[in-house]
Amino acid sequence: MSWLSDLFGPKKPKSADLARERLTVVIARQRAENGPSPDFLPALQKDLIEVISKYVQVNPDDISVQLEKQDNYEALKVNIVLPEFTMR
Amino acid sequence: MKTVVVTSGKGGVGKTTTSASICTGLALRGFKTAVIDFDVGLRNLDLIMGCERRVVYDLINVVNKEANLHQALIKDKHCDNLFVLPASQTRDKDALTEEGVEEVLKGLEHQGFDYVVCDSPAGIERGAVLALTFADEAIVVTNPEVSSIRDSDRILGILQSKSRRAKEGREPVKEHLLVSRYSPKRVEEGEMLSYKDVQELLRVPLIGVIPESEIVLQASNQGTPAIHLTGSDVAEAYLDVVARFLGEERELRFVSYEKPSLLKRIFGGA
Ligand SMILES: Nc1ncnc2c1ncn2[C@@H]1O[C@H](COP(=O)(O)OP(=O)(O)OP(=O)(O)O)[C@@H](O)[C@H]1O
Ligand SMILES: [Mg+2]
């Protein structure tokens, strides 16, 4: 039977090909989700400090930039603490 | 001293089988080697190594200072320079702590061990994380099958974020892919992913391919690591893995399937 179908049978789609396709998607998604935070964050933080310093005096430590992951979206959270004496 | 974790995410893929053969292979090469069972609550390595009747103390006893390393390490029955540190059968998984494991590894280094092989439990929880925390190298055991491959990818992510090397920003843990329970026949028939597929999906350097073989059951029945069953395909494949681990070049074996001739297929034959 098996050699007969080997010789004459139609080519069935191979299940291994299907597995490969599905895994390619799954792994790409997994790596995007679990991967390290994007490496532009420190640079963004530096730029923000520069821009904001033009207007108010801030301490580099008073600016935090974080990427927060929700179920199906990401939020960029920027937190800037202004020194009290600039408030008028 | 080098610490090597044998890990996978998914259960039952061959971590313990691999740990037993690799620690034996390293010992046969003359390295003073210890193998630690991290599967707290489900100890198995002692059976595979064939030392179950000599277990008195375990890893948790050492961590809790109820026994010292000398008392807890069991000398292997085949190799003088190989020692087994069994897992505890306690149900309390929290008994193992990061500090405790670090202490045990320091103790082993102090005793002049060259290699410590850590047999990880399945999963991505505490036990599996502790087993990989102090790793210098990782052998990721993967079966050519969808869930095993996905889980291997997850455990790679954990290696890259939770190991000490990652956290301290040192050179990353050196990763090796070991494809196990491989059936060249089924790959040929398109029913199983090839080792090349697995390697391309996970993008980790391949350290070897272990064929699916009844030898493994035979070895575990006897309590002898499969690498000792010389002449068998599994033993040879593990010897190659150890050689590659030590930096030697070995061609891949047992990965291609010779189709039986048409006559043989019609008339049968062994
Ligand atoms: N190359 C192989 N060929 C055939 N059977 C194998 C092979 N490798 C492992 N096995 C079998 O698969 C089963 C699981 O092996 P093993 O205990 O090494 O896996 P494990 O990853 O340590 O499992 P766990 O996650 O439960 O700790 C055992 O029955 C073993 O005999
Ligand atoms: Mg195991």
Characterization of the model:
By secondary structure, chain A is an alpha+beta fold. Chain A contains three helices and two strands. In chain A, strands 1-2 form a two-stranded antiparallel ribbon. The longest helix of chain A has 20 residues, at 15-34. Chain A is rod-shaped, with a radius of gyration of 27 Å. With 270 residues, chain B is of the alpha/beta class. Chain B contains 13 helices and eight strands. Chain B has an eight-stranded mixed sheet, with helices on both faces. In chain B, α1 crosses α12. The chains are: A alpha+beta (88), B alpha/beta (270). At the A-B interface, α2 of A face α7, α10 and α13 of B.
Key terms:
heterodimer; A: alpha+beta; 3 helices; B: alpha/beta; eight-stranded mixed sheet; 13 helices; globular; binds magnesium ion
Question: Secondary-structure map with pairings?
Answer:
The complex is a heterodimer of chains A (88) and B (270).
Chain A: H1 2-8, H2 15-34, H3 41-53, E1 63-69, E2 74-80
Antiparallel strand pairs in A: 1-2
Chain B: E1 2-7, H1 15-28, E2 33-37, H2 45-49, H3 59-63, H4 69-72, E3 74-75, E4 82-85, H5 98-110, E5 115-119, H6 126-133, E6 137-142, H7 146-162, H8 164-167, E7 174-182, H9 184-188, H10 195-202, E8 206-211, H11 215-222, H12 233-245, H13 262-267
The structure holds adenosine-5'-triphosphate (ATP) and magnesium ion.
